[in-house]
Amino acid sequence: MSTLAPLLEMEGLDAWYGEAKILFGLSLQVAPGEAVALVGRNGAGKSTTLKAIIGLVRRRARRLSFGGTDLIPLPTHAIARLGIGYVPEDRRIFTELTVRENLDLGRRPPRPGAGRAAWTLEAVFELFPQLGDMRERRGGQMSGGEQQMLAVARALIGNPALLLLDEPSEGVAPIVVEQMGRALARLKATGLSLLICEENSDLCAGLCDRVLRIEQGELRGPAPAPPP
Ligand code: ATP
Ligand code: MG
Fold first, then answer.
1. For residues 183 and 213, is the Cβ–Cβ distance under 8 A?
2. Sheet with 84-87: strands ordered across
3. pLDDT by residue (tens digit) across 169-222?
4. How far is CA 44 from CA 24, 88, 173, in A?
5. Ligand 1 pocket, 213 CB below 6 A?
6. Does the beta carbon of 226 lie inside 6 Å of ligand 1?
7. Of the residues 94, 120, 132, 160, which has the fewest C-beta atoms closer than 10 A?
């Protein structure tokens, strides 16, 4: 585990959909360059945790900060601008736009003083060569796995310091999972932090530094290591 000061700090996070309380006092931290997996059954609260970080659900916390900035009062677009990328379960690829146009939509100007190089399209295509090969293809003509890769690449081009990934390898062929894992490992090596909701240990094995298990909206301590 990294010994750097945490980038994301969450302490006692509660969240609700309407009157239904879904998350109960979640506490976790993600350090710069650290990859953390969040696992748990269907309906455990994994997606809600990511949504709570970026303000898509009603939430309350003793602390929810990113790089020392309190996220609770900020609207989602301001949180994204701080450098948090989010790839939701529902990927929202624009089927009538090309790969390149889909990526351009994710582009954001580099944050002043952020000290991170902005990702160029060419750098993203180098990381995901398949996307480069199909840059003029329409989103609607891509497979589910290719769309998933495009969604990850688009979040990247927004120049995040932390990437929240909701089941990025869901429905993705093993070979593509492998490529995605390699790309994410390279990103992590550049200092990008990752918080990944993922049951697929093929993606997280060798990538994630820690695995946290969530059950019925509560963190249950470290998950057992996957079988070798
Ligand atoms: P999965 O593995 O199926 O993606 P998850 O761990 O991501 O599950 P969440 O989507 O966070 O689970 O859902 C947590 C709980 O919140 C579930 O009981 C779910 O039914 C409920 N829930 C999710 N979205 C909403 C919503 N928009 N309105 C009301 N309840 C919701
Ligand atoms: Mg989910």
1. no
2. 84-87, 162-166, 193-197, 35-39, 210-215, 218-222
3. 887 888 888 888 888 998 899 889 999 998 767 888 889 999 999 999 999 876
4. 11, 16, 25
5. no
6. no
7. 120
User: Is the CB of residue 195 less than 8 Å from the CB of residue 164?
Assistant: yes
Q: At 21, which CATH number?
A: 3.40.50.300
Q: Which of 161, 167, 153, 166 is nearest to 124 (CA)?
A: 153
Residues of the domain holding 200: 8-222
Residue linked to tokens 């093993």:
174
Tally of CA atoms within 13 A in the half-sphere of 32 that contains its CB: 10
Confirm if 164 and 177 have CB atoms less than 8 A apart. no
- Report if residue 228 sits inside a domain: no
User: Is position 158 within any domain?
Assistant: yes
Pull the structure tokens for residue 103: 């990526």
Cβ of 102 closer than 6 Å to ligand 1, yes or no, is no
Residue 115 pLDDT more than 90? no
ipTM of the complex: 0.98
Mutate to test the pocket of ligand 1, among 16, 17, 50, 200 (most ligand atoms within 8 A of CB): 17
In the Cβ-directed half-sphere of 228, how many Cα atoms lie within 13 Å? 0
On whether residue 103 sits in a domain, the answer given is yes
Torsion of CA 85, 90, 91, 92, to 10 degrees: -110
Mean pLDDT along residues 85-114: 75
- Give the number of domains in the chain: 1
Residues of 60-80 as b/e, b for ≥16 C-beta within 10 angstroms?
Answer: ebeebbbbeeebeebeeeebb
